[in-house]
Amino acid sequence: MLIKETWGNYLRGKFEENLDSLAIIDKSQNERYTYGELMIKSESIEKAFIGYGVTRGTHVALVLPGGAGWITTFLALINIGAIAVCLNNDTTDLEIRDRLLYSDSKIVITDEETYGKIKLHEEEIGLDLAVIVGGKDRYSEGICCDLSSFIEQGSGITETEIASARAKVRYDDILTIQYTSGTTGTPKAVMSVHYKVLSNMKLNSEVFKYTKEDKILSSLPMYHVMGCFFGCLMIFMSGGCLVLGGKFKTSKIIEALIEEKCTSFHGVPTMYKLIMNKMGDRVFPDLNKGMIAGSYCDAETMQAIIMDMGIKNMFPSYGQSEGCGYTQTSMEDSIEKIKTTVGRAIDGVEIKIVDDQLNTLVANTEGEILVKSEYRMSGYYKDEAATNKGIIDGWIHTGDLGKLDEEGYLKITGRKKDIIIRGG
Fold this sequence. Notes:
Strand content: 25-35%
Low-confidence stretches: 418-424
Distance between the termini: 34 Å
């Protein structure tokens, strides 16, 4: 069932229920926020955005590491219906320039290191404002200011003005613009919708059975669906705590899992393999759940994760930026299904396997995976042709190869086209 509500409205209720509970532990910045503190911090940034003139539909680019600063700013934006343009900060100045130009982002939230790249093309991009998060100095010069100075500019915004800005946001507004990984050529800008992402995450959170007692460790990038949606948004729905590991470093992740008594880990197969290779005789007594997605994981690796890391409940899943989560395993599934498949289609999703002539194939036959989903994107930003090519008669052509068994469990077998994966 689709939940026709905005993320801002939904999360405010959850935050108010869990004001004194830990929401974020940011290991890289040594910061901790309760839900109450996170609400206060994000609202102060929200006021600054309102004071500057940011409103429903304004494109604001987030180009900074995925820590607590990223999350507080993101929450502020979605509360007032601004569109968060989520960009990879750990890339070249030219790629950042191109993404900012294409996305029509005139406001950027960034850090000092990344701003050095952006500044090279500032005039060409036509930036109006750059807010620097995490800097040591207070300053406001030209179009650039630090976060604290920016927040001060919104100190005079009233509760009435906040309520007015929030009231303009609709459940079917665009939530984010996130670039695809470029699996079929030039990366495309995916426009995700508030209520569709909310509904999808609600279903997935029910499968994971997270509660306010859970601590979930993630080092996944916030500019990606897995980090942003399956990381902070899904976890905040349950009132649990998100432990941010920063840029993935195996030894730091192992330490965080033990020190913070994490109950779950979200990662791609490579991350799990690196942990197992370096954990030695250390154990994770509190770790009982794990999400694994992003690329194919073989049965042997899955078996090793369950046995060596002691994770009783692994959740292989399959999805894309274009439609969030498509499939999910559950706690009730057999070990064999968990080791060899990515689960079955969740409610609101249909999957079929087709040949090159788009004929539907019988069970256990390899072909392209097509998906029809209630949660699919609004489209690719400024690229109607690519949208129409990728979605035909309501079916998303994923470009992935796979098989469905007689019970509807999906196995990923490859890609129709080769892909270069960077950073894990």
